[in-house]
Please model this.
Amino acid sequence: MTSPRTGPGRPRDPEADEAILRAAVELLIERGVERTSIEQIARRAGVAKVTVYRRWSSKEKLFAHALESMHEQVRAVDEVNGPLLDVIEELLPRWGELLADPGARALTARMIGAGPDHPELLSTYWRHHLEPRRERARKTLARAKRDGVLPATTDVDMVIDLMWGAVLHQLVLAPGDRSATELTAYLRRMLRQVGFALPG
Model:
């Protein structure tokens, strides 16, 4: 396979690209947009500053690309076989671990805080990180309605908004740290409140 090129005769190094994108996400989490520079990203990635500038003209464009490159960290409900409630029960501990992860908490806070001054970043985060998860939630709730797990009259988008509000509260606003076990129990109570008949 031919390597992607930045210009005539200049092949790009996929490993350098990955290192730069990984460093950008790490520093975004650690320091935020304003306190991170291209120089710091290059140093963390182990590349020359000019290598970064050949690919991205600004740190905002680099951050946007880095966010787009993030992959899903846990299987979706529709990727696990079995009755819906059993699948949710299986995945709940992993969801709790993700909510407890300091990196996930910091990234969420950074993106919300970046909105006023860096709307392009927030828009990218929405399109490539949040909206795909929202679409998966829609499919799961639609399945729940079809299976009789939730009432046929359930307003799917309203339920998603309510659940996201609860999750963002735990990720960004709630003081103190919570363990994965505590957050798993919180998610279970939240799902029970919106109508899923999960055990207590």
About this structure: The chain is about 65% helix and 0% strand. The radius of gyration is 20 Å. The first strand starts at residue 5 and ends at 7.
